[in-house]
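#struct-pred

JT: dropping the chains for the assembly here, can someone run the whole complex?
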Amino acid sequence: MAKKRSETMQENRAKLIAAARKAFADKGYADAAMDDLTAQAGLTRGALYHNFGDKRGLFAAVVNQIDSEMAARAKERAACEPDEWRSLLREGIAYIEMALDPEVQRIVLLDGPAVLGDPSTWPSQDNCLQVTKQAVEKLIEKGITKPLDAEAAARLLSGASLNAALWVAASDDAETVLPKAIEAFCAMASGILAPERSFASADQP
Amino acid sequence: MAKKRSETMQENRAKLIAAARKAFADKGYADAAMDDLTAQAGLTRGALYHNFGDKRGLFAAVVNQIDSEMAARAKERAACEPDEWRSLLREGIAYIEMALDPEVQRIVLLDGPAVLGDPSTWPSQDNCLQVTKQAVEKLIEKGITKPLDAEAAARLLSGASLNAALWVAASDDAETVLPKAIEAFCAMASGILAPERSFASADQP
DNA sequence: ATATCCACATACGCTGCGTATGTCAAATTG
DNA sequence: CAATTTGACATACGCAGCGTATGTGGATAT
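RK: done, full complex below.
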């Protein structure tokens, strides 16, 4: 018996997303021609419009995939740290490091907002944010950090780290700039610590 | 005597930039048709290509104008504060507030990075950053803040504030979210203060 | 085994960017 | 001041690429 219908459909979706991910990262959203990337996947534009509706739909699927990977990686990194404050710092540092990946830069940080609108409105990016937000909430409960709005703090932390990463990536020598960025990030992050703690734990892990 | 040549040229450039600014803010970069916006300015695409080279060139000119206005406004706001630390906070808050302007959001924050690349590579955005960087440098000299890399700190501060602003703008009720964002921003900013100062001056102005 | 369906391919039109060419008024020259 | 040149902008054209409407063959249903 030949392959089942729904099975090949999933395969084709995956092929298209993979090809699109490469094309979008390589050429940017605007300059990625759909004829090219579908051909790359051994298909035509027909498959694409059937599965994803339009170019934006395909792009959204790609962003979704990358965001999921990012959230997973951030969580994984955070889990390695002993206490929750260091976990949060690690998470931020993880975002900085991930944003050094050209694929992440081009697709998520540069083209993403233009094509899909503000990141806070994407369900996928929200996953990334939820990871951070939950970490902040725990810290607030325990009195380790100031009683700020958890979402506000989470957004500022991720925003700062992603922005720092773009800067590092654009600089000539990432090697020397990256530690500066991480140091500044840890310093700023320590600003949300509750006063009595800010001396002991402000250092980076 | 009729108008001088260079004079009308400047007028036309200004007309095009004004029309483009409105169109880009309204429709977004991709959906703004150049035939439309040139007609709006009482001209044709010929004028546009002659003056700005291509669509990106016109967009860059628009971004340049907006960024100049933003830097001026930030500086102006900062100048009203008595001490330099409060100046810096005011500056950050000013960015948050400016980013609530739909024109700034769409053109500078959403489309800008996709069309022109990472903001840190634009000369205009660099102006905004220089304002903050200089403020940070002064604070470091005086020992008010930790001896971090000034550029790193400046980028993190502006990144955090702009990101926060996007969040506020995307939220349903900006009225209640804005103060939370500002509070969190001030908290995080206080993280770059030197230890012996962090209690006294961490509050927002 | 025949009929139905649907995932995808093929074919078409339309929009919109960029360029090549034309034109007329302002500037230059003697 | 007339003749000539310049250049800012308009006009006309070609082409790429998106979205849609229609066609088709193989899997599923009966």
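JT: nice. The two ends of chain B are 56 Å apart (CA to CA). Chain B touches chain A through 51 residues (CB under 8 Å).
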